[in-house]
Write a structure and sequence with these properties.
By secondary structure, this protein is of the alpha+beta class. β2 and β3 form a beta hairpin. Helices cover about 30% and strands about 35% of the residues. The strands form three sheets. It has a four-stranded antiparallel β-sheet with strand order 4-5-6-7. Strands 1-2-3 form a three-stranded antiparallel β-sheet.
Length: about 180
């Protein structure tokens, strides 16, 4: 992809939280990719932090989306970078080692095989992710903003910052009725 300035027409993100797993699905022009993270680390919060950092002017951000075990694609790095035109380069690589989860392991963040590359408008990614977070906040959190199925608190302050910034990029919060209708087709 190096030097390729073709912007992907489609880069849709979806988040599904269930039984201590958070699945990130990314649909591109070519195919759909799914990556699962375990609750043992808070990858969802890290994704929100990385996106917020980019929205606030960072040039690059990285998230370890870590699962369990060494199956292909079970542990990946999501690397994101912004250009001067408001577009985002995305590369998803397998983690070369899956032992990051073991507390006694000396581990370095080495990347393996590239699973996904895309060049997309950052505003579309920001709006799509913020909509997914709004859906999670409404449908998957309890009264104390705890995501029971994820076993972590919802990153409310960071989400609200993304909402404010997202408004400049076309984000409009959905009503609870619309969110319920989308969640229960």
């Amino acid at each position: 992809m190096e030097g390729d300035s073709t912007i992907s027409e489609k880069f849709d993100v979806a988040l599904t939280i269930k039984n201590g797993w958070c699945e990130l699905s990314v649909e591109t022009d070519e195919q759909t990719h799914s990556f699962k993270a375990t609750f043992m680390r808070n990858a969802l919060n890290n994704l929100v932090e990385a996106t917020l950092a980019l929205a606030e002017g960072a040039d690059v951000a990285c998230v370890l989306w870590g699962g369990e075990g060494n199956a292909p694609g079970a542990n990946v790095f999501l690397d994101m970078s912004l250009d001067h035109y408001g577009n985002m380069g995305v590369a998803v690589h397998e983690a070369e080692h899956w032992t990051w989860l073991q507390p006694t392991t000396k581990w370095t963040p080495r990347r393996g095989k590239c699973l996904l590359e895309a060049y997309v408008p950052f505003s579309g990614f920001l709006v799509g992710l913020t909509r997914e977070l709004q859906r999670i906040r409404v449908n998957d959190t309890d009264e104390s903003a705890f995501i029971t199925q994820w076993r972590h608190s919802f990153p409310a302050a960071k989400f609200e910052a993304l909402e404010r910034i997202g408004g400049r990029h076309g984000y409009i919060p959905r009503s609870k009725e619309e969110l319920n209708r989308l969640s229960n087709p």
